[in-house]
Amino acid sequence: MKAVILYDSRTKSGSTEAIIDTMGLKLAESGVYVEKAKCKALADYSFLRDFDLVILGAPVYYFLVSSQLLGALNYGNLKQNLLRKKVALFLICGSPESMATVLYLPQLKIHLVRNKILVEKIFPSNVLSENIVIDSFVLDVLHEYNKTLKSRFLLAKWTVEAQEWLDSVPSFLQGKIKEGAEKYAEAMGYKEITCEMLESAKGEFGG
Ligand SMILES: Cc1cc2nc3c(=O)[nH]c(=O)nc-3n(C[C@H](O)[C@H](O)[C@H](O)COP(=O)(O)O)c2cc1C
User: Fold this and answer.
1) What's residue 111's pLDDT?
2) HSE of 186, CA atoms in CB hemisphere, 13 A
3) What percent of the chain stands above pLDDT 90?
4) Are residues 90 and 33 located together in one domain of the fold?
5) Domain range for residue 43?
6) Burial state string for 64-86 with b = 16 or more CB within 10 A and e = fewer than 16
7) Which residues sit with their C-beta closer than 6 Å to ligand 1?
8) Could you read off the pLDDT of 153-189 as tens digits, one per residue?
9) Residue located nearest, by CA, to atom 21 of ligand 1
10) How close is the Cα of 55 to the center of ligand 1, in Å?
11) Does 182 share its domain with 132?
């Protein structure tokens, strides 16, 4: 499995870099091939196609998630290249977790509604004093990732309504739609194919 830690920070050799190095070490110890990449808003993120798992995160400055990461999601091609990727999220901040969950995490999650988010975690800036917290984040991510692999072998079930819709489509299109929907469900970790899921898959595949 190949993972990349995509991060941003204003501070060279600051807490973020130390945290991701600890994460990287734990991933490598667990047998994962891992790279790190620092975000630039307008960089080309097509390299993400080479990775199975993207761990994405940054610190918060003045109530906003660090600007190059937000910029890459808002203006660059990051969001597009994250489609159907398995993603884990982390934030680093000085605010209490409850506040960060409401104010900061949504700044990332609003861009990732079509992703399978394996784990999300808010680290306090002093987390390095307890490396075990970072290690346990990595282990949670790997556990969730492995769960998605196991569920790959179980094809998602079609709900009655979704099956009725499929039956109403011209028969020469049915096979292609069925295969596409099942692949999409697998990538997203869905166990059921519903009409709502077909609608969002349609958006992704451009109709
Ligand atoms: C200039 C500055 C502004 C910050 N603003 C916030 C903030 O608005 N909310 C918050 O929870 N933490 C805030 N923090 C805390 C940082 O998110 C935290 O210290 C983080 O670990 C910094 O990462 P770095 O060392 O990689 O720069 C701020 C820190 C700095 C230095």
Assistant:
1) 94
2) 13
3) 76
4) yes
5) 2-151
6) ebbbbbbbbbeebebbebbeebb
7) 9-11, 14-16, 59-63, 92-95, 125
8) 677 899 999 999 999 999 999 998 998 898 888 877 7
9) 125
10) 20
11) no
One domain, residues 65 and 92: yes
CA of 94 to the centre of ligand 1 (A): 6
What CATH number does residue 75 fall under?
3.40.50.360
pLDDT recorded at residue 207 = 57
Dist. CA 73 → ligand 1 center (Å): 20
- Of the three residues 113, 128, 151, the one that is the final residue of a domain is 151
Domain count within the chain: 2
CA distance 50 to 25: 20
Q: What is the pTM of this model?
A: 0.81
Q: In this structure, are 184 and 117 located in the same domain?
A: no
Minimal-distance CA residue to ligand 1 atom 16 = 93
CA pair distance 76, 80, nearest whole angstrom: 9
How remote is the CA of residue 59 from the centroid of ligand 1, in Å? 6
